[in-house]
Design brief:
With about 300 residues, the chain is an alpha+beta fold. It is built from eight helices and ten strands. Strand 3 and strand 4 form a beta hairpin.
Length: about 300
């Protein structure tokens, strides 16, 4: 097992393998012109290029959050060392996204109820950081929708009408385009609406166990020129957005590894998250890995039970 310092070095070395960062080039087949969606997302890349090339994380990732009245949202833009075809094929269906979101520390389980080719329902169980069974967690119904699937662009959405503490209108949206012939540029957004009940719950959390937790946006620098990160609700939504992004990375990275797939994904998530130890308290011990093993066992048992009932 890697030490924390080795893990941080490993993740940064892994994410910095982008020799064409300054000179993106993608070979379009034949005389095909890039789609308007590709051009729009590439325009976003150009606008944040400087931040991707040089930031406090040391990796080509750009994070931002926004609050409008009762809406909180966090966005992650990043370069992935995976070609577009691989990413599009790996993240184009609901069952694959069930595996992705299950890596998030607060997701206790996920089931897929296939409706049709373009729109499926996911039941996601969200709960505490520590181990819980799906029955102990909050059940959320998400609708999976593949909004666009083009030769140079994939866009999928997961939406849910309601969540815990009266929160509503959840959205997880993912876009990807080819950056060059061996890497991709992605945009991930996580947002939800919150009301009075959620505000009170958040205030209670921030006054106790969430008091010293931080996000990723740097709001200032201290006397020793060390970054001072945002806290509060902004920190919460940024951490959750990054947890999902790391889940996407871990899912893709583990696809080429030998051995048991789920175990590889969990270990990879842990190693990637270890590069952001200031934000993620869960990487200070191996509780995350042990928790995910138990949750996977629950999911596996539920699948076997469902199969027995159908026979």
């Amino acid at each position: 097992m890697l030490t924390r310092r080795a893990a941080r070095k490993s993740v940064r070395n892994l994410l910095l393998l982008f020799p064409l960062l300054l000179y993106p080039y993608y070979s379009f087949a034949g005389n095909a012109a890039p789609s308007s969606h590709y051009q729009s997302l590439m325009s976003q890349y150009n606008s944040i290029k400087a931040s991707l090339e040089s930031n406090q994380y040391g990796v080509p990732v750009y994070i931002r959050s926004e609050f409008r009245k009762d809406v909180a949202s966090g966005e992650v833009y990043a370069l992935l060392n995976h070609d577009f075809a691989t990413v599009a094929a790996s993240l184009g269906s609901s069952d694959q996204w069930c595996d992705v979101v299950s890596l998030h520390i607060n997701v206790k389980g996920c089931d897929v109820d296939a409706g049709n080719q373009s729109q499926d329902q996911l039941t996601i169980y969200v709960g505490r950081r520590h181990y819980q069974t799906p029955d102990e967690a909050h059940e959320m119904q998400y609708r999976f929708h593949k909004a666009d699937s083009l030769p140079d662009y994939l866009h999928v959405n997961l939406t849910s009408g309601s969540g815990p503490y009266g929160t509503t209108e959840y959205l997880l949206t993912f876009e990807v385009i080819p950056f060059d012939d061996s890497s991709s540029f992605i945009h991930f957004k996580y947002s939800y609406h919150y009301g009075l009940m959620a505000k009170l719950a958040i205030e209670g959390y921030l006054a106790t166990i969430g008091k010293n937790k931080v996000g990723f946006t740097v709001k200032d620098y201290d006397a020793e020129n060390q970054p001072v990160y945002v806290q509060g609700l902004q920190g919460i939504v940024e951490r959750n957005s990054m947890r999902y992004f790391i889940a996407i990375r871990a899912f893709l990275d583990a696809s080429g590894m030998r051995g048991e797939q789920w175990e590889n994904r969990v270990e990879q998530w842990y190693q990637l998250a270890s590069g952001f130890e200031r934000q993620f308290m869960e990487v200070r011990d191996r509780e995350y890995i042990e928790t995910k093993r138990k949750e996977y066992a629950n999911r596996d048992a539920a699948t076997k039970t469902a199969l027995l009932r159908s026979n």
